[in-house]
Amino acid sequence: MVDVMSYEQWMVLTNGGSFSTRGRRLKSVDEALKAYHLAIEAGSSVEAATKKLMTNFAVWQTSKDDWTKSKRNKLGGVTALDRQMKGVQGYQIILSKAEIEALEYVKQAHIETMRLLFKAANIKFKGTGKVDKAELSNGMGSIGTNAQN
Predict the structure, then answer these.
(1) Per the count of CB atoms within 10 A, which of 54, 55, 125, 148 is most buried?
(2) Count of other CB atoms within 10 angstroms of residue 8
(3) What pTM was estimated for this model as a whole?
């Protein structure tokens, strides 16, 4: 069994700041890491929990252009977990080639959707140094923390 950081340590090391929310892929890594440690504490088989952790972590990494430069890695937490997970046998082959290609396709489709959605947008930020509200000049309305929907 590989020594993997605690859930609490992971949460501290991957904190993105006060105004940062954790995306669903990162939350799935959080939950899988918690389940991994619960399985160890219970003395049960950790095989399923390990596979889930490795898979969720690989999916999160693949969703980033360069996960090493993610704000979640500013304290080195992601790099540390990556190194720890590489000690788990089979880590490198969790995702098949078809799964990796599918994830890349989804990622590219997301990028293209955002490009099409905002291609004619002239985004003007309003506020006092912080991004409180953005007006979209393409008639799509406002976005931001103070936006009226």
Answers:
(1) 54
(2) 11
(3) 0.59
